[in-house]
Amino acid sequence: MRIRIVGAGAMGRGIAQWAASAGHTVELADVRAEAVTDAVGFVASMLERAVAKGRMSAADRDASLARLVPLADPWAAGPDVELVIEAVREDLETKAEVFGKLERALPSSAVFATNTSSLSVTRIAATLQDPSRLAGLHFFNPVPLMRIVEVVPGAATRPEIPAALTALVEGCGHRAVTVADSPGFLVNHAGRGLVTEALALLEESVAGPAAIDRIARDVLGLRMGPFELMDLTGLDVTAAVIDSIWQGFRYEDRLRPSYLTPNRVVAGLHGRKTGRGWYAYGEGAGGPAPEPEVTGDGDRPVFLAPGGSAESAPYADALAGSLEAAGVRVERGEGPSAE
Ligand SMILES: NC(=O)c1ccc[n+]([C@@H]2O[C@H](COP(=O)([O-])OP(=O)(O)OC[C@H]3O[C@@H](n4cnc5c(N)ncnc54)[C@H](O)[C@@H]3O)[C@@H](O)[C@H]2O)c1
């Protein structure tokens, strides 16, 4: 398939790498010419890394790169383009303008997909002359590693389009899930429980970003904490998503955006892509802070009180066993020792 990706930022380049590696011809375009050059360099370096790790042959790398076509003009005619994936700024007017120009440049048979994180797919489609040709195709960052993709039909989307997008996604090795065109779709709506709450914890001075991230990793078992995730996504993107979901759900208080984000966005504290966010990146930034020493009474024994019913005895034994397995000294008996 010949796919045109418009927007060669963090997402566009990841989608380009994924689709070109899976055998599709990918035209990559952006209003900033340097974004396309950077993106092609980025994809080349990622494929190089895959070859070095033995996950891709040098011949496959060369073939993938040959399928990646940098495009100087995003609105160039493209009679063979079958699918457009738009990954420009999270802003309705910008996306409407992009699709308007593409609608004039490309054949009416080309399907349009938007990678919006939080705007209404139906509203983006409504700006087109033919709203039935557009659906949401929501990837996650980094695209080659995040194997889930949300397929989002708008109210007017032709019924065969979600099925075709699902086949494309699964043909490239990712998992497609069809979700409703509701604010934040599924993953970002659920994600408010992590990110919006983490910002509320910070706002209320319960703990700092490093402590909250550590708890999310150690206790919730996540690969990264909410502040690390915001730095990876980019706070400019995250803040737009937070606002858009809040507005979409009619300003529900549980989704209220933190007052902490707007100033950080205008200050350019977007995270990895600007070198500074909740953490610092790049040369001289230093590594992550070491885990603090456990102090205080961490080496004192834990007293497990007797009592309870016969049915509960196995649970008390299991608890004692778990504590001991974790290196805790357990005392049982009538009362705790002086220790
Ligand atoms: N970053 C994420 O984790 C993430 C995840 C899922 C979806 N998204 C969505 O993907 C989209 C892009 O996000 P991103 O993180 O890649 O942003 P980004 O800022 O890294 O890249 C956006 C790119 O779009 C280009 N652009 C802006 N206006 C344009 C126009 N009119 N025509 C052509 N190109 C234009 C910019 O030059 C830039 O290179 C957004 O809708 C975002 O919500 C982002």
Task: Name some characteristics of this structure.
single chain, 12% strand, 42% helix, N-(1-d-carboxylethyl)-l-norvaline Dehydrogenase, domain 2, binds nicotinamide-adenine-dinucleotide, two-stranded parallel sheet, Rossmann fold
Overview of the molecule:
The protein is of the alpha/beta class. The protein has three domains: 177 residues, NAD(P)-binding Rossmann-like Domain (Rossmann fold, 3-Layer(aba) Sandwich), CATH 3.40.50; 88 residues, N-(1-d-carboxylethyl)-l-norvaline Dehydrogenase, domain 2, CATH 1.10.1040.50; 30 residues, no CATH class. It has twelve helices and ten strands. The longest helix is centred in the N-terminal third of the chain and has 20 residues. The protein is elongated and about 85 Å long. The chain binds nicotinamide-adenine-dinucleotide.
